[in-house]
User: Fold these one by one.
Assistant:
Number 1:
Amino acid sequence: MKIIINNALTTSHLLGGNGHDLVSISLAIEKGKIVQISECPLPAPQGTSTEKPSEKVIDATGLFLSPGLLDPQVHFREPGMEYKEDIASGSRAAVKGGFTSVVSMPNTTPTADNEDTIAFMVEKASTTGLCKVYPTGALSKGLEGKEITDFETLQAAGAVAITDDGKGVQNNSLFKQALINAKALGIPVLDHSEDERLSNGGAIHEGDVSRKHNVKGIKASSESVHVKRGCDYSAETGGHYHVLHVSTADSIEAIRQAKAKGANVTVEVSPHHLLLCDEDILVKADGTLDANWKMNPPLRSKHDMLACREALTEGIIDAIATDHAPHEKALPIEKAPFGIIGLETAFALIYTHFVKTGKLNLNTAIDLMSKQAGAIFNIKCGRIKEGANADLALFDLNTPFTVTPSFFASKSQNSPFINKTLYGETYYTLVNGEIKYARP
Ligand SMILES: [Zn+2]
């Protein structure tokens, strides 16, 4: 089917040129590709009588056209924990947020440490997924940090990266070997940087808030110790070391230094670590802390949060990642699982708090959520060009909307951003030229 998008606003930068000013464009999409880009509106295609005109022509007047977004880190829970999320519901959340591609983590049941599980995910994504799902393979068997997996087999089955995300790799020589093995295959090792001797079973960041509420804390150094290790090993081996969900000032300093020396290191940050700190954790009426503010790495100190913001505006950060992790949270904070959903709100949070306030250029924000995020995995995306895949999102940048529990497409609503008013609501998401989300 042919689809026309008329009168959308975008920038010449996103069209592959230079320039930040908004320009009005119209597009024709056919067989999954962008076949024509025009300055003038295009005529409605001739279709069969069963197709409604509204399904063929999108009037995008006043809407901003972005390349489809790519999230480098999501947890879709399938196979094994489909009651929390599955590929169908997770990808529904993705397209609701303007994401057309996601990289999924291997902490499923069974673990994605074997070709069959990865092949299952690829197959399931092609049948029930609304967006493109790129699986990762586990670094160690069962994420146990003992026995290294066969990266070549995992890559052949479809894995775009290697990671034990969900857990830090405690064994130094195993981690170094992973960088060496992955380098030979041209894929990155993604690190959930956590030294368990320092995180020590804590529930929130160790600091004034954990002490005040008598909750066991996670030391900031639990992350930075592993980030420094990864940067050193990357410099030594030449392997591509990618830091997942960075959250502390010391980690950022280590990455800054490694990048200055030209090390093969990349880093992502999550909207919640940019926008919230431990002081923001909601205190419930009974005086206890709300578990929707519990994630791993935890919301850190204000100093750490400000360091993440500085790294973002300074250009140290390569990508924005949600770490979308659906969970039921009706438990005391010590007992509740770690995790936050994020696909539906990520773009709007970044747009509202960084672009609209003038801290970050719109093009840079989109690049961090598409082209640059894809580059970590050698996935080409992030430009609106004739001949390119029609992976696109249309956002309303001007009308405020409020996040409610029913706003989420995920199976869970574990978000600390409920009740927040944001800008940048998704109106349409197209994956391979098909409309996968249309705002009701
Ligand atoms: Zn993680």
Note: The mean pLDDT is 96.
Number 2:
Amino acid sequence: MLAGHSGLGKTIFAQQMAKSLLCQEEDNHACGQCQSCRLFESGSHPDLHVLQSEKRMVEKEDLFAIYAPRYLEDESKRKKRKKPSAIIAIDQVRGVIPDINTRPHLSACRLIIINTAEDLNINAANSLLKSLEEPPSDSYFILISHDPSRLLPTLRSRCNRIDFRIPDKQQAMHWLNEQLSDQVDISQLLDRASGIPIRALELAKGTRHSDEEQVTQQMLQLAHRQIDPASAAAVMIKAGELKSILESIQIWLSRLIRLKVSSQNTTLAINEGDKPLIDLGNRLNFRQLYDFLDKVSKSKQLSGGPLDPLLALEDDLISWQTMFSK
Ligand SMILES: [Zn+2]
């Protein structure tokens, strides 16, 4: 299981790992030349199986999106829906299981990638458990998860977990430097992206709207009572989906907590731009911050359900503002 916030490279890592495991050369890295590597790149490797939701397939036009349709419902059925389905259904899992019980076609093993594990609905997750517990000897399951706390404990416990963490700033800046031209203020860009390198890159290329910036602005205004929770919720929902807004709030809070900790260490220099956040963090104690972080995580878990997104967000923002009432 590859676990961590989105934007830390889990999908790219999964692709490289899959390609290397399937490669027919004996080196640890994919050679890029053999039949396996070539089929992998062209989206037609017979031993790579990808389960993901239709929604993810539509939104991210990456290599996995080429592999995903094999286990989705027929196009005629999918077209009848108003919106692409955001879940991985039991039929998709049932579709892949017979395929992993035959010999690999080309490579020495076969891979089943689940992108992402939290998209599995409860029935799909349950029907996967047995295969995860006793996979055929030449099969690997790679589960990608942006939020492992949302997964069934029985699913988590069957996996070896690799955690993807936010890299330290120097390392992230070094990587971004290689991707971007000299004209960009990389340090500032990284701050806007809460330290997450791929988000920073997407911001620079204009392919991502800065949820983070908006979250910072609204959360500060709420704390200073310059806006009411209903209006702030409306502004935020207009620009994004509930789940991604809540994730941005989570990341933002983690950053606030980190800044609060480091500001207590008088030997560390404080970045001028972080001052408003540090002041805010110092008006609350850690208990309050962690309780609120828990509340936001819970809302995120419920965000795919029947809740009204606007009301759900407003409820969280009311809690936030209430903490600053005295
Ligand atoms: Zn190869």
Note: The pocket of zinc ion is lined by residues 23-25, 30-31, 33-34, 36-37 (CB under 6 Å).
Number 3:
Amino acid sequence: MEKIIDTHCHVQMPQYDEDRGVVIERALGAGIGMVCVGVDLPSSQAAIRLAEKYEGLYASVGLHPNDNLDERYDQSAYEVLARHPRVVAIGEIGLDYYRVTDSILKERQRERFIRQLDMSEKPIIIHCRDAHDDMLPLLAGRTNRGVIHSFTGTAEQARAYCALGWYIGLNGIATFSTEYQEMIRAIPADRLLLETDAPYLASAPHRGKRNEPLYIEGVGNFIADIRGVPPAELFRMTTENAKRLFGI
Ligand SMILES: [Zn+2]
């Protein structure tokens, strides 16, 4: 039984080709479960293969708004993956305007995102960068639920997502700057999820190096400190939240 869930990691990625099994077993051995998140078709299929192999590791499938611009979106291929019993969520999908200013490209992202929202009843893992003003009204009109992962928006935006029934996922980014403290405190305890986004975004003391699910403890300790709660209480609550959302 996992005592912590890393709700967003990418242990299927090439950064772990040399030692993937060791990294995964290191986390599982420490009582850390994982949601392994796809960003395109091959990484979604790879996530499922890992979830078939390791109890305590679950898969999510979807096409990220701009991680693989060469892939032609094939809804039926994702629908097949989405039905797999080890798939607990659809994602990461969403909107990323950080590198996109063209309104036609933004519209294309929105269309593809909505098609993926329509695909399944399973919870959604959303990637949203510089696009909360479009995302919030879009989600307000829908019945989907899930998590806004790697959240770096404002306290007000966090409250707005939670009021719509969504969860907020925090990772090492939250530890990079003091500007997120108000937002970190604003998230209701029953709406907060922890993640690493490994191999990216390692928090101190691992910053700049390859991240891994084991380091989720550092993220949780940091957030517990800012929220003024004992780490054990934060881990208990966020794990309960993750299990409720993903049905695991
Ligand atoms: Zn990610």
Note: The mean pLDDT is 95.
Number 4:
Amino acid sequence: MNYDQVLSELETLATETFSLWDHNRVGFQWRHYTWNHTMRVRAMSMELGRREGGDVKLLEVAGTLHDITKRYDGVILTDDNGKRILDHNGFWLNEMLTPARNNVVTELYEKHNLEGKVHHESGAVITENILGMYDFEPAFVEAATSVVLAHLKPMNLTAEDFKLLYGSIENQILYDADTMDPNIGYTGFFRNIHIHAYFALQRGNFDLEEYVRNLPRWINSKQEFVDKLLTESSREVAQARQDRNLQLFTTMVAELDDMEINRKYGLLGIIEYFVSETEDPHFLNQLEYLKSEWLPLRKQWAAEEEKSESERERAEAAINRVNEFLTLLEREGRGEI
Ligand SMILES: [Fe+2]
Ligand SMILES: [Fe+2]
């Protein structure tokens, strides 16, 4: 078996599966989120695997498939009082969204009656069946299935059940990477601004200054996620991400004192760009656009336009802050930091 070939087929299967639904946004998810998140979680878990001495190929395969049934999730079900309905493990239950088209994943989903199961359970069944079609060792298939199953942690696990579910380091790692990605660091910030602005715009308007000043509330609310991560390496990475976010907040607040320049050249301009993209966000494409078009254009403006010495210097400093931000965002996206 050619591993690279198989991995590339699994990636194609994941992107194909995610595109079988036509809807864009449901709750906090959007069309391109699942794939971008999958790639980031996979990269982060492979990095954590290297640090913790885990099986990196196992994490690569399981990371690729971990959210394979996620697009079935519709709105979160609520009771008559508007409270979210939890199952006995503490997972939110979702309405099921039927795909507009079918492939081998949706066929397996039907064949194994996975409707109504939370996506880590249905995803584990799909993973086991898909990997079974290739020449993997049975122990590898079993381990990958277990990693996918463990990527959501049931509430109130007994010590015994915890050992069963998280006895292997790879299970702990994927859980950690999956918890970190939407919540902690610049990747969490990217998600937060697109969610926050989307709802703000629906209510009428997005207030830039208010958003920036309130960031610590959001950042600090994530500290408990850091403390509850399962591996030492994850807690280290996550704490560095938290610190980085608080630093980002300080830098953004300082930018508010020079609004005009910083909305044009600085991090405030980046926020406003993200706000303009809330309809259909795409992490990788937006990052590419910012690097290859947004930033070069500002560099050109800073060099060309008639402005005072002081204005030019402030514009250049703002551009440097954006450059730094994009570099770190990209490195987080690649799971390096
Ligand atoms: Fe998931
Ligand atoms: Fe995930």
Note: The first strand starts at residue 73 and ends at 76.
